[in-house]
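Protocol step 4 of 6: structure prediction from sequence.
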Amino acid sequence: MTGYLDTISHPWNRKQIMAAMTHKFMEVQPSIDRTPGGKIWNDLKGLDDTAWIFYTSISELIDEICIFGERSKDAEFWNKSNEKTADHYTREVKRKLYYCTSSLMTLVDISRNFDKRHKVDGSSIKRSEIFTTFGLHNFLQDLRNFNTHWRIAEANWSIKYDMESGTRTAHFQIDKKDFLAWSNWTANAKKYIQELEGSVDVYKILATYKKQAQAYYAWHKGAVIEQNAEALQQYFEYTRIHEGLRQYQKWNMLLSHAKSDTNPYQYLAKFLSNSQIESVLSYPKQSEQQMDALIRAVDTYQICDQNLKAKLMKVFSVSDSSLNL
């Protein structure tokens, strides 16, 4: 789909963006989003969202393990009459483990697609520097297929006491034999399982991988921004101009149609924070200084001209005498 702006060569100016809004209002932002910087930024936001879903899935899984550890301290927890037994928490952890592995695969796919569309220099080198636990990434990728095509991993709760520190920790562990019964592990994933000491500790594994993933995607986002600074700057400039024009139209309409018997101060809380309200009210009531403070607080796009200011002062019934204060 081609919009009015798409027919104009870059860079676009305020007058051209205003003309595009007049021509067909709804086409302007899509045209801005189709610029090189817009494509990069919106793809990056999609990658951010996917990473957040993955991190949140891990946090929820770890929280579930911790909840079991806390609840199971109570002797009543182990009574057969208790509805939420260890089996309940086992099911919850298995469910959330599935979410973790599924969201990881989605993150990997979206990250690969992003790098195909927007080349990021040094990404393969950085991955090898950060994901240093050999086979862990392969294991978690294969775990998703294990859960989907084989069975949800069976597990056992393990409660450990540290007599010296007096601490008690709960662990959700899976026997390596249950994993190795599946024949479709990749070589690196299988080696990772085999070299683990004892059972597979879900809490420890996912906490380690989450830390590595967060470090990599923080670096990745910074690299994308640095390497595409010019395209992003142009995109954000267009967005700022467009949003400023939209804000101007909105405030012009609101101020033009404000009823004369309306108390405008009742709307301050709708548009300002408490600290901003305090700043505005620190100036004399219905004074030009107060209006200037209000404009500074609201006008983040610096669109207020003499026309808007005159309408604002009329709404607040600013008297001519205040101009000499």
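Step 5 (inspection) to follow. The two ends are 55 Å apart (CA to CA).
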